[in-house]
Design brief:
By secondary structure, the chain is α/β, with parallel strands linked by helices. Helices cover 39% and strands 19% of the residues. It has 13 helices and 16 strands. The strands form 4 sheets. It has a 7-stranded parallel sheet, sandwiched between helices. A hairpin with a 7-residue loop joins strand 14 and strand 15. Helix 1 packs across helix 6. It is globular.
Amino acid sequence: MALLSSSQKNNFLFSVAEALEQNWEEIVSENAQDVARAKAQGASAMIDRLLLNKDRVLAIARDVRNVARLEDEVGKVVHETTRPNGLFLQNVRCPLGVVGIIYESRPNVTVDAAVLAIKSGNAVVLKGGKEAIASNRALVRIMKDVLLSHHLPSSAIEFLDTTERKATAELLHARGMIDVVIPRGGKGLIAFVVENAKVPVIETGASVVHTFVDASANIDEAVAIVVNEKTRRVSVCNALDTLLLEETIAEQFLTKLSKAFLVSSQKNGFPIVKIHAKETVLSLLHDYPDMAKVSLKEGDYSTEWLDYEMSVRIVKDINEAITHIQTYSLGHSESICSNTPEHIEAFFARVDSACVYANASTCFSDGAQFGLGAEIGISTQKMHVRGPFALEGLTSTKWIIRGSGQIRE
């Protein structure tokens, strides 16, 4: 796979996109089995992550085409120099090798991971969650058929077709066969992988996302940002978890936000967002339903909600807001709404997360939105790759040295 030309890889990806579109009914049918099983088990928060319909399958196909159109990273020269002794050195990008991806309930990851791995010259081993077993099985079969039709080895995409956790443990111990493992999911999955892996790990995913609104912010603009962050898709890792408000604008902001949440719920059929906060904060939600006001309990500020719920805290100033974020953040995405340049620059400098925003929704923390075509995940670690990563993050580098008989004394 490392030796494939760019055209070979791109032709494969365009064929995958076409095959997904042609087989969308089969994919949706298999996915319906997974969704029905999840509903029967009462896993309501998972349904949005799990669900595939025609539009979502077509969107996955579009992302595959976007990846095909991206510049090939393999062989790209990062740095080159000629030494005084005549040696010509190049540092070039090369594939990682065999990449293991362990993920939970989002079947789109099956396609994203496979096509990004192939485009970057890797082979991939996929271990999806039991929640999406039927969906993943169908998607892998379609992609393997395309590999064969292009005279490529079907083993370039391997799927561990089991719901047993021991398969995950064996994958994590496959040192010498797997070059790197990437977990994509919640805190529990990531912790299990990090604690048990004997192969290198790139951590992704888990988040407690914050937005701070200061007194200089455009209130209407900030309300729209918060509503988008919280309600666009509650089950994804870039959704808002904790809202921090400067005390001088807290009541005004919460009055407008609560009305906006109610309008959004009525217009789009969303549940009303539950707000977890201290009683002094809840008392400012004058016309908000009592059933959607929840007294803050220990652990709420550390919760990745993945549902129509969020925490709210009133802070004295930007320093208290940043201290809160430094305490509870998992290093994913944070945003400030402000028209004070000094506050924005202080936020950028002091908030140490993979994606830090000013006056924009954290929903943009996504590989496709960053122009990467798709993503393997959002890395919250600092080594190798950070933030949304795709093709470049699935490569390493090596040195190529060309000589003319030089020897070292």
